[in-house]
């Protein structure tokens, strides 16, 4: 019974921590992209930021759909 009661809190806290790590990574990329050394470096930074964001959305949707289907 205790495990069932703790699961929603555990999942919510995990998603919150995951979002904080995504925000930290995006903030670091923003600081790096203020003055890129070349155009190609800026493109790599932008692609990396977009990939991190889409990865975060995919993981969150996967977790949310898993909770709905169970």
From TrEMBL:
Keywords: Electron transport, Heme, Iron, Membrane, Metal-binding, Transmembrane, Transmembrane helix, Transport. It is a multi-pass membrane protein. Its cofactor is heme b. The chain crosses the membrane at residues 44-65. One of its GO terms (molecular function) is oxidoreductase activity. InterPro entries: CYB561/CYBRD1-like, Cyt_b561/ferric_Rdtase_TM. It is found in: Membrane. Signal peptide: none annotated. Residues 1-64 form the Cytochrome b561 domain. One of its GO terms (cellular component) is membrane. This is Putative ascorbate-specific transmembrane electron transporter 1. It comes from Carex littledalei. The lineage of its organism: Eukaryota, Viridiplantae, Streptophyta, Embryophyta, Tracheophyta.
